[in-house]
Design goal:
Strand order of the largest sheet: 14-15-16-17-18-19-20-21-22-23-24-27-28-31-32-33
Largest sheet: 16 strands, antiparallel, barrel
Helix content: 10-25%
Low-confidence stretches: 1-21, 481-493
Strand content: 35-45%
Length: about 750
């Protein structure tokens, strides 16, 4: 061999292998683990910062969610924006975002805690299919994943990163690996932990959490992609859940024995110790992410020593942006509902036509979806969005699971005071060309009893709906002599308040998404019986006709102890009738009354909120001559549920203004410590003369009173448990404390 040939051979030997050796193909395996799987996003961030390539992803349960998001072009930062967003919080807890509730279609609030169907459903079907309602999650999944399904034409190999996820076919006793289909459906099946989330049917088979058969999908990665090397991220609990919580017991029962090993000759395993977190610790997303990120950085050098494949952050970002730019816009050309009766299906379809256009966008589709679920007439409403290449639009299909039209509700408010009451109601709901609902409810307690009949018919096209209602209410409230508030001089020794009225809501119109404006007319009989300090019995009576205009707006996230949202209630009414005491002839009365209250809650921090409240009433009502009659018929100020248990002379007036502040510390998502500090000022205080007659005090707004309360509140899935202590000034000043469980909501009053 001559020198020239030797040199040429040497050069070829040095250069050809470098060009011919392909880059390693790297598979990322993400285990299940509930909220602990958020750590996967932190590990991915660490891998990207170290230019470690990711060519394939396989995930189970929460690993499927993170892996699916990554394969659909989400960066770890964008994942965390999603995981810490209000939308994800509502989806992971099964709560409907109050901002999305269509107030006009929503049922009238009541103290119901449990509802039972009176239809043909069996007793087994009365039990909810899951601890967490799937409804909010259903729509979020199509918004997130439907465009990527359209982009890859249902082939998961054509996503930004080829993707697989694992679900469990419990009936067939084997795992199901998804390589095609609807990305959202596949992930939804993979993360359906039994009892916690409702299973979904794919190809007529109910599928559950993939962790039952393969929680660490190494085998799936190996069989599906044959990577040169794997990176396995394991966040599952290291032991078999020694703490016997409900979720741990379920997990122990359903998970099959399986391996969490990744052979060293096939790759590197990253074990992230998150044993102190639970499956549903989603509020701790940032902390979990940070632990995963730090663990990924710790392992980076070991991974790079084993894996030579590199992909710069810039290259990944470019690839991600290119994929995201190619996603079709979520615009819908049709909507079809199945699962209910013909009338029910058509009702749901019409919810999406409120904007009056045949083609609608994602925001309008979301609006229509929540208009339908706001009726609370469906146990579930499952949407799917399929791209139609011929039109360039998505076709929206929904499967409805209607509730029985007849139901029974049970609830109440149990407290350490005499204000405890039980509540029962029977309800009817019909969906079709018109939406009709009716309910008969009853409150039964030691010092409060009431009954209400309410029937509503909603008419008109969805673009301009309207409704009418009939309401009949009878209520009685007693204040007993042994209540502490009656020990003070200046209060009647015994009071019974009775009112009965009929009200027709002539016209009710939606005022935007969260409000209703109504015009009503009604007749009411109001009766107050009491004994004065000398033991004489009196009966103060009113027979009144009423014409009223009301405006009601709310986005509050709870009836009794809200931490977010805004509520505005205002009413202007004219009253005409007659008043009399005992058997006296009495006289005619008429007055105008304007009243309103507002509450706004600001979320200042993850753990702190601040509420500002205000209430006012302006009335031209003539002062009743007899003091006790005047004070018992005056409006009362009750800023908290516990304050409604007492008859406080100093917090009653015909016209008044009040303001309050409510600082709230949210220790956890379920536990809060809150204050309610309020100033109440009557326009003119009602005073008693020596002869028992009533008169207004001199001057205006010069008799302020204070009511303050501190309460610890624990929110259960069905009610609130609270322990409270309060103090009030005035004639009946003093401290009060107690505990309560339930929802405090009494029957409507005629003059409010």
């Amino acid at each position: 061999m001559n020198l020239k040939t030797l040199i040429l051979t040497t050069l070829l030997t040095a250069t050809i292998p470098a060009a011919a050796v392909p880059q390693q193909r790297v598979g990322l395996v993400l285990s299940g683990g509930g909220a602990k799987g958020i750590a996967h996003a932190g590990v991915i961030q660490a891998l990207e910062e170290n230019d470690i390539a990711i060519d394939y992803v396989a995930g189970t349960s929460m690993g499927a969610i993170v892996g699916g998001l990554y394969s659909c072009g989400y960066s770890p930062e964008e994942m965390m924006e999603l995981f810490t967003s209000p939308q994800f919080s509502f989806a992971s807890t099964g709560q409907i975002n109050p901002d999305m509730v269509y107030y006009f279609s929503a049922p009238t609030p009541s103290p119901v805690l449990f509802t039972l169907s009176l239809g043909n459903d069996s007793i087994a079907r009365q039990v909810p299919q899951s601890l967490i309602s799937p409804v909010p999650m259903n729509y979020e999944f199509i918004e997130i994943f439907a465009p990527s399904t359209a982009r890859c034409d249902g082939d998961f190999n054509k996503l930004m990163v080829p993707f697989r996820c694992v679900a469990s076919n419990v009936e067939g006793r084997h795992k199901e690996v998804f390589a095609s289909g609807q990305v959202g459906d596949a992930i939804r099946a993979s993360m359906t932990f039994p009892i916690v989330f409702s299973p979904i049917a794919i190809n007529d088979t109910l599928l559950y959490d993939g962790g039952i058969y393969e929680n660490f999908p190494v085998e799936t990665m190996r069989d599906e992609f044959h990577p040169d090397v794997m990176i396995g991220v394991d966040v599952h609990a290291a032991d078999r859940h020694p703490t016997p919580t409900a979720l741990n017991q379920i997990s122990n029962m359903v998970e099959m024995p399986q391996s969490y090993e990744l052979p060293s000759d096939e790759g590197i395993k990253i074990r992230v110790n998150l044993d102190r977190f639970s499956l549903l610790d989603f509020p701790k997303a940032e902390e979990i992410y940070e632990i995963g990120y730090r663990r990924g950085l710790e392992m980076a050098d070991s991974i790079k020593s084993r894996i030579s494949a590199r992909r710069s952050q810039e290259a990944v970002a470019n690839r991600r942006n290119e994929f995201r730019r190619s996603l079709p816009e979520m615009r819908f050309g049709s909507v079809t509902t199945t699962g209910g009766t013909k009338a029910q299906n058509e009702f749901v379809d019409r919810m999406f036509m409120a904007h009056g256009k045949k083609i609608f966008n994602s925001r309008q589709a979301r609006d229509g979806f929540y208009r339908a679920v706001s009726t609370r007439a469906f146990a579930n409403l499952y949407p799917q969005a399929r791209f139609n290449p011929a039109t360039g639009l998505f076709d929206l299909s929904l499967h409805a699971y209607p509730k029985s039209p007849w139901s029974v509700g049970l609830g109440g408010y149990i407290t350490s005071s005499t204000n405890s009451m039980l509540y029962a109601a029977i309800g009817f709901n019909s969906l079709g060309n018109t939406m009709a609902d009716a309910s008969l409810g009853a409150w039964i307690g030691q010092n409060y009893a009431a009954a209400q009949l309410l029937a509503t018919v909603r008419l008109g096209p969805q673009s301009h709906p309207y409704s009418g209602s009939i309401q009949a209410v009878v209520s009685r409230r007693k204040f007993f002599q042994d209540e502490q508030l009656f020990f003070r001089t200046g209060s009647p020794d015994f009071v019974t308040g009775l009112e009965a009225f009929v009200r027709a809501y002539i016209l009710q119109l939606p005022a935007g998404r969260h409000a209703v404006t109504s015009l009503s007319a009604g007749y009411g009989y109001l009766h107050h019986r009491y004994y004065d300090s000398s033991g004489l019995e009196y009966a103060n009576n009113h027979s009144l006709g009423q014409l009223a205009l009301r405006y009601d707006y709310t986005t509050l996230n709870a009836v009794n102890y809200p931490t977010s949202g805004l509520a505005i209630h205002a009413a202007a009414m004219g009253l005409l009738g007659r008043t009399w005491i005992n058997a006296t002839p009495g006289h005619h009365v008429k007055w105008l009354q304007i009243s309103g209250n507002v509450a706004k809650y600001f979320n200042l921090h993850k753990h702190f909120a601040l509420g500002l409240t205000g209430e006012a009433m302006i009335s031209t009502r003539e002062l009743i001559h007899e003091y006790f009659a005047a004070i018992t018929s005056a409006a009362s100020f009750n800023p908290t549920p516990s304050s409604a248990n007492s008859f406080n002379v100093s917090f009653r007036a015909n016209s008044f203004i009040a303001a309050g502040v409510a600082p709230i510390w949210k220790a956890t998502s379920s536990l809060q410590l809150r204050g309610s500090f309020n100033i109440f000022t009557p326009s003119q205080k009602i005073e008693s003369a020596r002869d028992g007659s009533a008169s207004y005090s001199r001057g205006y707004l010069n008799h302020p009173e204070f009511f303050g309360e501190i309460a610890a509140v624990y929110t259960l899935p069905f009610a609130s448990l609270s322990a409270y202590g309060n103090y009030r000034t005035g004639i009946d000043h003093g401290w009060n404390c107690g505990v309560s469980l339930g929802v405090f909501l009494t029957a409507p009053k005629f003059l409010k």
